[in-house]
Recover the amino acids of this structure.
């Protein structure tokens, strides 16, 4: 069985090198912009004849209160660069492919932010990941 906790830790250890804070959850009222958080982590079985594997979709979200898209686009580049690095280890072979990415301008309806009418930029980066368990000889 593939240990999803171990795989998640491999991803987390890479993304923890971002120049902004990264969270596994969003603390209520967080105003420490910019920040990133790991959103959805969807998996399905992807076994082959003789190898155990899973396919995943990993969602990474970035929130920026900076005027314009410059900051959020720069952080998207950082995430892409980190996710292109090899995540494999002695237990798992991991292939990461950049999926679709989206940036959008949103309005903070709760009123947490105090900038430009509470407008912020939100990026969603989706990565397609294949994880295969290495055979231990």
């Amino acid at each position: 069985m593939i240990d999803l906790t171990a795989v998640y830790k491999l991803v987390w250890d890479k993304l923890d090198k971002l120049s902004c804070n990264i969270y596994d959850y969003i603390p209520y009222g967080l105003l420490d912009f910019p920040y990133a958080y790991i959103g959805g982590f969807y998996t399905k079985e992807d076994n082959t004849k003789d190898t155990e594997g899973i396919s995943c979709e990993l969602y990474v979200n970035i929130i920026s209160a900076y005027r314009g898209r410059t900051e959020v686009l720069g952080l998207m580049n950082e995430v892409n660069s980190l996710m292109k690095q090899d995540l494999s280890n002695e237990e798992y072979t991991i292939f990461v492919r950049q999926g679709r990415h989206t940036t959008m301008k949103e309005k903070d309806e709760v009123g947490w932010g105090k900038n430009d009418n509470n407008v912020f930029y939100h990026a969603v980066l989706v990565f397609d990941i294949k994880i295969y368990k290495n055979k231990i000889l």
The beta strands are 21-23, 35-45, 53-64, 92-107, 119-133. The first helix runs from residue 4 to 15.
